[in-house]
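Sequence in, structure out. First:
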Amino acid sequence: MKERSDRTAERLRNWLKALASIGSAVNQGVSVDELLTMVARTASELMGYDFSSVTVPDATGTVLQIRGSYGLSDEYIRDVNSLHPIRLRGTSLRSPSSQAFAMGIPIQIQDAGTDPSIGPWAPAALEQGYTSMIAIPLNAPSGTLGILNCFTRRAHHFDPDEVSLLAVLADQAAIAINTARLRADQTSTITKLNALNQTLEEQYELQRQVAEVHHRLTSLALSGGGLDDIGTALSELLSRAVVIRSGHETVMCGSSFGSDMLLEALIQEATQGVQHPVKAGTGLSNVMLSLADGSRASAVRAAVVVKEEVVAWMWTIGSVEEFTPLDLRAIEHAATVLALELLSARSAAEAAWHRAGEILKEILTARGPLPASLITQAARMGHDLSQPHALILSSGIPKNTTGLQERVAAAVDHRVEYTRPQPLLGFHQDFLVTLWPLGDSPVESVRPVAECLRLVLRDGGEGIESSLSVLTGPVSGLQGYLEAFSVARGADHLARLRGIGGRTLLVSDLGTAGLLLQVPDSSKVRSFCEEVLGPLRRHDSSRRTTLLQTLRALLRNDLDEGMTSVQLSLDADEIARDRRLIEKLLGSELTNVATLTHLATALELEDVLTALDKGTP
């Protein structure tokens, strides 16, 4: 009796020790699979079973899978888990494990070889070598968590005391599983919270750095920092060379961050203005630079946009993918500050252009001395009207003048030195009029400027031949600007009468007619023209004929009546008749050299007079 009592006490101590080990394992944070293997081993060691396993539902909750085992072969585990899974639903033949899981009570079989519930697992049971088994549910308040399966080689009946002990172990296992899962969930939650906290700290640090970048760049904008200052600040933030291109101005900043060859390629890319697709949503695009040694290097281009218009570009070394979030924010803020700077400059330029146009209009319409207030206003804008100037009159202004002011101003800024006095330009009477300071230089020296302005108008217009720039001067006195404008306008008209266009010319390029345009008193010229051409003009007026037109055509065609008839779309007999009438009215034949010379001179002078009349405001 005492010996039996001692065995019972020893067995109880072993059970308590085993349960304590399971609890300790949970506290140590072992994985669920390790915990289930410990439960299976404990059942076999304490009860003397040959094999044990613990099955739990898979992630879908449709089958039971072995997650912990003791004594079972890998082949048996693979057969149960993969080849013949223990299904919890969707089958008419339910295994002992699925029955125990569904009902929450122990299920045992005496002979696996004859019990029909073993079904498809019979071959695996035979190979594993067990005869009897029992399935104990791992019950918890939330439901059944899994099954503890115990196997014996010999036939065995699991008595009530045995089942009770296994139920205690199963309950402890269920508690341990729940605790382990809770601990795993807690660990996962803590990990996620730590990651979230780390993310928040990184975002806070990024926002702090972004705020510093914003403050630095905004301070530059408020203090009127130009492209150089903004580009230098961005270069220091990125630790990369930066090139900014706006209009004709190109700025290189941070040259210490790249090789000479790379910087040269970056400048060339910016100067050429090669178009590349912009990466959607970022305003950034990767471009490839061709280096002098034949190799290639990556660069990034960012657009600076004002009112959906790209007003400048920024380039830097590298690729978009290399940039950190702070780098991207720095580029974004730099583009915004540049846009504000350029918008401010554009507004100031528009105001200056408008005021310059008003001053120019007053200068070119004043009949008397220029008001002192006007001269003072011009001086405040950097113009000294008392100095010698060349007057450039450019015609062919396009119908669509959008952006024309900016292009004209950019062309002038590109050529003018940062010295006083500054040129004065604006639109007046369908012309672009420019007063260009000469200093000690001749008028001819301004021809490249006049040609540049003509090309600006041409590129914005519909036809290349419609653009024309006329250059005159020097204008040395305050009273000479109106006269110079009249002469230039007359020269423009005369040039168009002669079919001249698509070029830049001095008034003197028109020959004798150009010189006559500059004669102050044209009364004698008018008298000569009237004396020579008056009979024809009076006849045309009274008889509604076109003798002057026919005479011009005959002289252009060397008196060839056939060519003249084709040119005027008239019958050759009509041309011959008009010629005889012209010779009768003039009292001389057109073949007379003296007569021919007088007529040619008179017609040219008449063109000059017409141009003078057109040039007079």
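Second:
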Amino acid sequence: MTRALWIAAAIVFAVLCLAKARIIGDGLEYLAMTQGFAAHGSPELRRSDVADFRSMPTAALERGRLRPEVLDGALDRIERDGTIEAGFVRARDGSVQAIHFWMYSLLAVPFYWLVTALGQNPWMALVALNLVFLGFTAWRLRAGTPELALLVLMGPLYYTVWIGPEVMAGCCVLLACLGLLRRDLAVTVAFAGLGATQNPSIAGLILAAPFYAMLYRLMPAAVFDAAPRRPRWARVVLIGAGIGAACLPYLHNQAKFGMPSIIARYYNDMALATPERLFSFLFDLNQGMLIGFPALLSCAAIVVWRIGPERRRVWCLHALLACLLAIGLALPTLTATNWNSGSLIVSRYGYWTSMPLLAVCLAGLMPLDTRTRWLALVVAVLLQAASSWQAWHTRPPPFLVHGRVAAWVLDHAPRWYNPDPEIFLERTLHREQIPTAEQVLPYTSSQGTSKVMRFWSTHGDSAGLCSPGSWLTADHVTTLVSGWRYYNAPLHCVTGPAPGLRYGVGQPGLSLGGGWWNVEGSAVWTEGPRSTLRLTLPPGRKAARIALEGNYFEGAKRTRLAINGVGLGDVVLGPRPITVPAASGEVLDITLEHTLPQAPPGERRLGFFLHAVYVEFAPGD
């Protein structure tokens, strides 16, 4: 009876997911690559692929909201301008390739052949692949009804309809982590490699396998539900396949684009990987992993409560290791420039990086008594229902509006929620937009303006709240590492000298010392490894923060900075604030040192192109 109910539930879930299949996220790239593999055996985007889309039944295109003219326009612009359009770009061999890797699309080809032969919505092929990954994972789990329901609840319930490899990544991470717990380390490497084809940080689980092998050699009792030992040849094949799969995207990118990762080159910024981003990843009220998946905490608590004392210590060890694995998977994602990226309840990255925690919870629940396992499921359902209710909106999409909890905090206690600027910007304006330093964004509640976000050096724009000659301030001001600043109610306008000044190259107050080329317009390049400059501040004023605004030359990425002889270590120059040593006075002698590659004879050794220095004065000056 239970099996029949599960089959019926699975059929209903699959039908509902297939019925909702339509373009979302980076789906157009993955569908086009699937079409390419199905038609001519390569992920290349060709005009013939667009023609094939146009020839599909009108009803199928309308159900999936597929517009072939989008690809036609992208091809026109790529051929004319050589830019990245709709996720596609001209490769070194002249072909047009997607910036994402093609493994997910290749696996979807059999379903695409079937769907298109039946004249159905082509997006159904990729949703069908998601369902196959979910079904295979459920089969591999070897668990009862509560654990299978938790598997569906913790991510696939939201992301199976997503046209992209999120479910593939989540299932691969879960299966790899279950392999770690069961001492089936060859399977860990295989699934980690497969998942890494679409999300490279998953390859970190391959590096975890030798550590777990050492752990089990020292602590044989730490294994959960040990899997039968595989033949040596099978282990070699699985490990080789996993490592090879993990390397494929880098080899493909190098061959097609001349670089290991075109996405890392153009859509990642190492400076974004800050403790604030990690906090946002875990605890953001709109899309944080633990806010979106509170059932992880409840399941862990129930396991600790009910597991036998002889196993509790081992389980807690695995739980700690799972936390480290989850954070390790998350760290590379913190560099993404598209942070508020089309999430459903929880961020896409949060879904698959949470799988180590789900794996250890499932492993801890399965040996427990039936009543405890069902209790864990009931509590999880209630918590996830509450989480879904607070985050879900139909208009606008849930990733372009603040969730109910976040909105309440912004209305009544704004100082306690200072999110990543992209999250605040897009969910307040209800549209996708990259934050720029010129933007000033107020948040208006029923009680008036409760919060203003602006870049720290944009002191002259108060979003219309202050009259000319006065400056915006607040009782509670939070400055993020990125340079974005939140002014939290109550807000005030104060008169007096400007809180900051910008010193342009060639203007009074900024004097260039040694190590500079000739001024070019309103900017100047550093010359050689060491350059100095002096800032003379207005009488009686001291600097709290500065920013050296400009850009680096290729090969230079960081600067060893010193102010008045006090070394500040290696920093990234640009618009972000740099704290000035407390003992500095009205004169700042600034030294910049760069490690530069040797230039060919007759060429200049360039480091940093300085446009201006912005100074924020200490409060009360």
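Remark: Residues 420-496 form one domain.
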